[in-house]
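In response to reviewer comment 3 from the previous cycle, which asked for concrete evidence that the modeling workflow produces usable outputs, we include below a single protein chain processed end to end. The sequence was submitted unchanged, and the resulting structure tokens are shown without manual editing.
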Amino acid sequence: MPPRRSNTLTEAELRLMRLLWSCGECSVQDLVSAMPEAARLAYNSVLTTIRILESKGYVRHRQVGRAFLYTASVAEEAAQQSEVRHVISRFFGDSRERLMLALLGEGDVSTDELETLKRAIAQAETAAKQPTAKQAQPEERG
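The workflow returned the following structure tokens.
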């Protein structure tokens, strides 16, 4: 049985996605040319990887003449959130708390980072205390 295809991004896939997010619509040759010369992949490797990304739903294409132009179909922030959810699920038993404790437990968190985290926690607390739109609507009686 073949291995199950992962929806997370490999390093090579992430490299191409970063190029698509920064450059927008590109041909395979555009992607090859945009890579740093020292780390440039072969045309066929980029084509194979871009097709894998398309099968995963991260990329879509349109045809212009004989060329295919590829564009990201998943925003960078959405991909980041997906990867974080994957890590939380896989390594931390779906616990955001365990993830945060692991990050803070390393001891090399700057005071600026801690202040940013405190603000984010305060904003999350405020949002959690506010009634959702569904909770705020009175029940209809019939």
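The chain has a mean pLDDT of 88. We consider this sufficient to address the reviewer's concern, and the full set will be provided in the supplementary archive.
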